[in-house]
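Lab meeting, item 3. Inverse folding demo.
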């Protein structure tokens, strides 16, 4: 019986060690690759770099300087189109429209791939003065 308990303890220690290593690696990826965070985590990261009120030209400059970001597209005269059905109930607007538009102009930036399975993009909404009013993060299945 003692031999069985010794083997059980060794196996348990090995399993816990493996779990600890995996958890540490996932944590390191999330720290060093911001797009691996939750959508809200990515949004907060972007807002630290590009706070509300920053000029559109500065957002474009910052995006172009970041080697990991690509496909920067500006939509003059058209804001970010939001589908409330896909939003969490907490952030959903109070009316029952199928879609609504935030801002007067928008920029889409591809931020990269997270965990090899999802492509992460950010949509920046600007007011009529070209100042940032909101950032939306979208995650799509990487094909």
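The presenter then showed the designed sequence:
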């Amino acid at each position: 019986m003692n031999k069985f308990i010794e083997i059980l303890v060794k196996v348990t220690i090995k399993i816990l060690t493996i779990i600890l290593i995996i958890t540490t690696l996932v944590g390191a990826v999330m720290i060093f690759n911001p797009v691996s965070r939750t959508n809200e985590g990515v949004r907060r990261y972007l807002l630290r770099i590009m706070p509300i009120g920053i000029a559109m030209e500065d957002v474009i400059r910052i995006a172009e300087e970041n080697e990991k970001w690509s496909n920067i597209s500006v939509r003059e005269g058209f804001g970010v189109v939001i589908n409330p059905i896909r939003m969490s109930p907490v952030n959903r607007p109070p009316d029952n429209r199928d879609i609504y538009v935030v801002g007067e102009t928008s920029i889409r930036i591809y931020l990269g791939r997270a965990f090899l399975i999802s492509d992460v993009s950010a949509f920046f909404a600007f007011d009529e003065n070209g100042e940032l009013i909101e950032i939306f993060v979208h995650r799509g299945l990487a094909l």
